[in-house]
Design a protein that fits this description.
The protein is of the alpha/beta class. It contains 13 helices and 15 strands.
């Protein structure tokens, strides 16, 4: 199979979808890997690294799409890439379609088979999403603490405090992968941390693994409202696989927070969990609503591109090899979890949450295949 690795063109997206070492392994398996020149530079991988791994380097973005049977990316295609996709081609990347009807319609029109990393589920886990969730969770405390600084418009609270001064208060909504990593980073700094979660078994797990360094509280609107007047850093880490994030934080609730406090909405890829959230970029990451600094960068892990690229390829390469070696139908037969990753097939929406989000007809991918 011919596998294409285009350079990411999303603003400040420095990740690349395939490591040179993974390209080498694919070549050994008899596949041809096409890499756009400069694709890996932002992650610290030169064109020479890919050439030495046996990849074919192409200078034109469009040429990668034109020649490849399977396109592997990091982020969703942008409008200028929509016409480059074609029927019968496989696109393998993060898509987050429930928050973007325009993209969903464009991909349906292309006829390409679109497989989303974030909806491949194995044993109630999302293995291809987890590494990026871990990075975003850890990063949320770093950026949140930075924007609490007075010169950044924050309240001037140091999360860890100092002897004789109480630490800052951090509330994490959601105890999943990103939430628990945010909580661990915050407790490591010495902050006062509360995790809101609805799953009682998950709360027991958090209570044990966090060694009582963070509090757990059942997630309800009443409990969140009671915490907001004293919180310094609020982390939105909710996730409904494949679906739009629920709007758990209203504008009226934000008014209860102190001026200069910070909201980091990790869920912004799926539309955000606050009524006031809208996507930002690494170049212009924050804005203020109701006195609260909002950090809503839609590709947070792109800031730590080398770590993120390595973490992503670690989990995607086995699925990529499966697709390349066997083709879609046989790959799904060998690894049924891939079926849940198919969001669009032959112009039809094949992911229930995406179909529901946009009021579009749902088609069972197992029947279509």
């Amino acid at each position: 199979m011919i596998i294409g690795v285009p350079k990411e063109i999303k603003q400040q997206e420095n990740r690349v979808s395939l490591l040179p070492s993974a390209a080498y392994q694919l070549g050994k398996r008899g596949h041809r890997v096409l890499v756009e020149r400069g694709a890996g530079v932002g992650s610290g991988y030169s064109d020479k690294d890919y050439e030495q791994a046996g990849a074919t380097m192409l200078s034109e973005h469009a040429e990668v799409f034109a020649q490849a049977d399977l396109i592997i990316k990091v982020k969703e295609p942008l409008p200028e890439e929509y016409p480059l996709l074609r029927r019968g081609q496989i696109l393998f990347t993060y898509l987050h379609l429930a928050a973007n009807r325009t993209l969903t319609e464009a991909l349906a029109e292309s006829g390409a088979t679109c497989i989303a990393y974030e909806t491949i589920e194995v044993n109630h886990r999302l293995p291809l999403l987890e590494p990026m969730s871990e990075i975003a969770g850890r990063m949320s405390i770093i950026v949140g603490g930075y924007f609490l600084a007075k010169h950044q418009g924050g309240s001037g609270v140091l999360l860890g405090g100092v002897p004789g001064v109480l630490p800052g208060k951090v509330v994490v909504i959601g105890g999943g992968s990103s939430g628990v990593n945010a909580a661990r980073m915050a407790t490591g700094l010495g902050a006062d941390v509360t995790i809101l979660e609805v799953d009682l078994e998950r709360m027991r797990f958090l209570d044990i693994t966090m060694h009582h360094t963070a509090h757990t509280l059942f997630s309800s609107e009443a409990h969140l409202v009671s915490l907001l007047p004293t919180v310094d850093l609020l982390i939105g880490a909710v996730l409904v696989p494949g679906a739009r994030a629920p709007k758990l934080i209203t504008r009226e609730m934000l008014k209860q927070m102190r001026p200069g406090s910070v909201l980091v909405d990790i869920a912004i890829d799926q539309g955000g969990c606050a009524e006031t959230s809208h996507p930002t970029t690494h170049h212009d990451p924050v804005y203020v609503e109701e006195g609260v600094t909002h950090y809503c960068v839609a590709n947070m892990p792109g800031a730590y591109a080398r770590t993120a690229t390595q973490g992503l390829t670690n989990v995607t390469h086995r699925y990529l090899e499966l697709l390349a070696d066997n083709g879609l139908v046989e790959a799904v037969a060998k690894q049924p979890a891939l079926l849940g990753g198919i969001n669009l097939y032959d112009g039809k929406v094949t992911q229930p949450a995406v179909a529901e989000a946009h009021g579009m007809p749902y088609h069972n991918p197992a029947e279509l295949l």
